[in-house]
Amino acid sequence: MNQRPERHMLLHPKAAVLQGIMRGIEKEGLRVDLNGALARTPHPQQLGSALTNPKITTDYSEALLELITGVHGSVESLLGELEDIHRFVAGKLQGELIWNQSMPALLPGEADIPIGWYGTSNTGMLKHVYRRGLAERYGKAMQCIAGVHYNFSLPDEVWALLGTEGNSIEEQRSKGYLALIRNFTRYSWLLMYLFGASPAISTSFVKGQPHQLERFDDDTLYLPYATSLRMSDLGYNNKAQSELQLCYNDIETFLKRLHDAVTTPWPAYEAIGTHRNGEWIQLNTNLLQIENEYYSSIRPKRSVERGERPSTALAARGVQYIEVRCLDIDPFCPVGIPDTTSAFMDAFLLFCAVEDSPFFPNNGFCRDSNDNFGIVSKRGREPGLKLVRQNQPIGLQDWGRELIERIAPYAELLDTVNNTTLHTRALGVQAQKVNHVEETPSARLLAELRASGRTFHDYTLSQSLAHHQTLTATPLPPETVASLERTATESLAEQLAIENSDTESFDTYAAKYHAALHAPVPSWATAQ
């Protein structure tokens, strides 16, 4: 192994600052009926407003729940809140379950997959029309794919300890997080191997469309060595977006390319138009309707004000945190992500932030990293699989063991400052997967399908029912129930107030929303 500077030593003099690491989770999950078919019912009113409830909303489909934690200073409190929200939701669902798998349940025809509805306010209609556009561009079945989004931030003091350049904290922060993202891009294939849990799908997902999958049984398709079909070109893919390559070398170029994507017309979308039979069917005919349409495995993020564009917020105040979007739902865990995954993510992301992170050549695009990610998604458990590192082939297991070794000091550092052994224990769990491919969740899932003789659909339905029973077996503390019910009730009142306060038509509102998008130029960045 090549000798390299021990970058983690830069943190040792003031390692206690790492207690300021914060993390949050957005966990998606389809509502299904007791036969495992997609729920056609509206978002349950007892869960509050999907527009304004900060804890419980929907993603693309009306049936796709999104459960959102607050920001937490420890893995334990993070997953504690995630479990509380799951238990609350499970207790409110009537004759329905949360589907505990990233790839969808039994889907109806495209016309019968419900798109998320957020009420009649202009802000609610903006969200709904955006989703109509997604249906036009990508099809509704893709809207039913689910995952776990992991949000992560470092305390501002870390950037000075690492010697990150910048004349302001906004500039330091943004440069630091983009460096993290570049390293994440280099090494995120490892997450596909370790946590990919969608090697198979129900035949209802492809509905006769051409594919390269093999038949596992009468109702299940798969790839023998796949880890995450969700993150392969079977899942989130699009011809238009394949030509969009964002650059993470600097914030200015990143924002410019994102701005170009949301302002440049795309011929196929122009052919669709924005209206059909007098109704809006997409927000515009550009490559992206809005910034969040870009399907990436990681995003630089900044909290936004109501009606503010994400790129405008990033340009005004810099990157605030990163959002990892490539984690599959863990089908063996009632809340979709165990503590060992969360703890490993903290160590992995700290490693990505601290280690040297050279700029990408080729106009900011690293083809090898993208190819490695795709290869591992579809073939990650293939014996003797080779990846490419710096234009040279390297065995997946060899590179994986090297990365585990390099991440180890960061896990130990996090354990020391947090007075725990969780992070090193989590690293040990992942090391076992690198050394024993049969312990990966994708391999375990296929082994259980074979052992049980059940289809992907029937097995997942059984798992989802078992998790539902686990979540509802013990009542939540009354104060927790009261708090979540109060949040739900207040969100319904807030949605009504927003609807009653609207004074302009949606056409006018949409025009203003588009007009508010300006070429984002960070005012805080160092003058060139």
UniProtKB/TrEMBL annotation:
Pathway: Sulfur metabolism; glutathione biosynthesis; glutathione from L-cysteine and L-glutamate: step 1/2
Key words of the record: ATP-binding, Glutathione biosynthesis, Ligase, Nucleotide-binding
GO biological-process terms attached to the record: glutathione biosynthetic process
Translocase listed as a keyword: no
All copies of domain Glutamate--cysteine ligase, residue ranges: 13-363
Entry GO terms, CC: cytosol
Catalytic activity line of the entry: L-cysteine + L-glutamate + ATP = gamma-L-glutamyl-L-cysteine + ADP + phosphate + H(+)
EC id: 6.3.2.2
Repressor as UniProt keyword: no
InterPro entries recorded: Gln_synth/guanido_kin_cat_dom (IPR014746), Glu_cys_ligase (IPR007370), Glut_cys_ligase (IPR006334)
An annotated Gene Ontology molecular function: glutamate-cysteine ligase activity
Pfam families (alphabetical): Glu_cys_ligase
Family membership: Belongs to the glutamate--cysteine ligase type 1 family. Type 1 subfamily.
PANTHER family membership: GLUTAMATE--CYSTEINE LIGASE
UniProt protein name: Glutamate--cysteine ligase
Protein's organism: Pusillimonas minor
